[in-house]
Amino acid sequence: MKKTVTIVLCALLAAACASKAPAPSASSGGEGGKKFVVGYSQSNNAEPYRAQLNLQLQHFMKKYPDIELLPIADAKQSSATQVSQVQNFITQKVDALIVSPTEPAPLTAAVQQACDAKIPVIVLDRTVNTDCFSAFIGGDNVLIGKKAGEEAVKLLPNGGNIVELRGIMSNQPQIDRDKGFREAIAANPKIKIIADREGKWLKEQATPIMQQWLAQHPQIDLVYGHNDPMALGAYLAAQAAGKADKIKFVGIDGLAIPDGGIRAVQLGQLSATFIYPTGAQEAADTVNKILHGQPVEKQQVLGTTQVSKDNAADLYKQYDLSGQN
Predict the structure, then answer these.
(1) CA gyration radius for the chain?
(2) Burial (0-12, 13-18, 19+ Cβ within 10 Å), 22
(3) What backbone torsions phi and psi does residue 315 show, to the nearest 5 degrees?
(4) 255 CB-side CA count, 13 A
(5) For residues 223 and 231, is the Cβ–Cβ distance under 8 A?
(6) Which H helix or E strand runs over 25?
């Protein structure tokens, strides 16, 4: 009888101990567990750079089978839309959040809310006005602008007139790319920026602006586009006016896609462009480390490479992901 009572007590104690063990999180990863869930709010899918970033992020996230990347939310250049998207991800209690801010100030409070909700935040490409995030990943836009300016100085050794197609005026990359460029061209006082306009990062915005400039200014020697689509939009306008061969075109992004900057350099449409890394691989790796409790660098500043006719073919091959699943 004693033996039977002892067995029953042990069984009851074991059941009691088991009931006090922490229940697995609804989104816990690991073998046999459910996947971690990650949300991403992209500033504008319509920009080729950002469309490529999305594709690359989806590609690199596949390396981690216990992480699910939710459908990418497109803010369509609207900060109000993006704030709503971030708040929606917070409500969904995602395990991690990636944000490419449309503008720094409007997104700051939303990123802070995610941080307060203990959701790790990776700020990708564009900054916010708080340091309450897990990692920032992006290029050095002042440096890239400076390199573009140094190339302009080489292309215009005797001086000349430059027109500048800027991104959205409130975007930090636009501010930095303008700053670096102007610092660099100051080396030659005979180089002048005779006009600059907001092109909103879009080719279709740049073409009519360039058409107006060609009508207003009899001498344009170089176009500096804050990204390749705007530089190529200007090229199309100059080509239609029969002036493309008299003007140099410099862009930024250097995407390895059929209508991207690397191919445009190969075709002689752009004199140069500069690789602006998407940060997609670094973002996927960083999310994985964070979700598995591994340390990450808070500031991850990515380098750049100038694309010229000499290295364009090799760089295209290096960055082309079209043949990969």
Answers:
(1) 25
(2) exposed
(3) -70, -35
(4) 20
(5) yes
(6) none
Distance CA 169, CA 233 (A): 18
Looking at residue 298, the DSSP 8-state letter turns out to be: S
Burial 24-49 (b: 16+ CB within 10 A, else e): eeebebeeeeebbbbbbbbbbbebbb
Residue 225, judged by CB atoms within 10 A of its CB (0-12, 13-18, 19+), counts as buried
Q: Which two tokens stand for residue 13?
A: 């104690």
List all residues 6 or more positions away from 94 whose beta carbon is below 8 Å from its beta carbon: 27, 37, 38, 39, 70, 119
Instruction: Render each residue's pLDDT in the chain as its tens digit; 325 residues.
Output: 434 433 333 333 333 333 222 233 444 444 456 789 999 999 999 999 999 999 999 999 999 999 999 999 999 999 999 999 999 999 999 999 999 999 999 999 999 999 999 999 999 998 999 999 999 999 999 999 999 999 999 999 999 999 999 999 988 899 999 999 999 999 999 999 999 999 999 999 999 999 999 999 999 999 999 999 999 999 999 999 999 999 999 999 999 999 999 999 999 999 999 999 999 999 999 999 999 999 999 999 999 999 999 999 999 999 998 866 5
DSSP 244: G
In this structure, is the dihedral angle defined by the CA atoms of residues 305, 308, 310 and 312, taken in order, positive or negative? positive
